[in-house]
Amino acid sequence: MTPLTPRQAHSVLRPDLARIASWIEPGSRVLDLGCGDGALLAHLRDHRQVRGAGVELDDTCVIACVRRGVEVIQQNLEDGLALFDDKQFDTVVLSQTLQSMHRTEHILREMARVARFGVVSFPNFGYWPHGWSILRGRMPVTGQMPYQWYNTPNIHLCTLRDFEQLAGELRLAILERATFNEGREVKRFQSWRSTLAVYRFASP
After folding, report:
1. Domain ranges of the chain
2. Where would I find the H helices in 86-178?
């Protein structure tokens, strides 16, 4: 398999991933859960000298990671993070995957165990058109949640306040929050104007 050239491997990060990258200290150790094609880890390696590893189940994504030169472990996140030691990493990232996890509390506790800091992002179910869609008798379908009710992988949808309450119950100290709508950062009325939320927290 021919590795990608640096030009091919480097692509402009999505705004939410760029924000995540800005929260990660140069030279730190990062674990990216559900790392997809490895774009975030490749960016962190090339621009912030991060030592990183990813966990991904999809075969195509694993191959893409290998082509980028990203270290990746093929595993189902539902099986947990038992292969990683306590505080083995500085930051663990779970990007746009939390809503598809069956054991939400378990994965958040595991993130807090293996790293000093965690970053999660998820679709914001509190986005105002979602409520309007439900009032009209239909489940919402948007760019951030493009699936029909019968084929969606999203099984645990939540609002910003829902997540913040759970974080408090798990003693995760929220340090940063950023919200986006179609790639644009939302600064005002975030709870109902944003389609995607990104949080950074400190482990207990």
Report:
1. 15-202
2. 104-114, 128-135, 160-169
Distances (CA, A) of 73 to 3, 32, 93, 126, 192: 18, 10, 15, 34, 37
Cα 146 to Cα 83, 97, 125, 142, 143, distances in angstroms: 33, 15, 13, 5, 5
Q: Which parts of 69-198 fold into alpha helices (H)?
A: 104-114, 128-135, 160-169, 190-193
User: Is 15-202 CATH 3.40.50.1370?
Assistant: no
Give per-10-residue mean pLDDT for the chain (204 aa): 39 89 97 96 96 96 96 90 95 94 94 98 89 78 72 82 98 98 94 96 96
Q: Tell me how far apart the alpha carbons of residues 93 and 114 are, in angstroms, rounded to a whole number.
A: 11
How much is the pLDDT for 144?
A: 66
Which of helix, strand or coil describes residue 121? strand
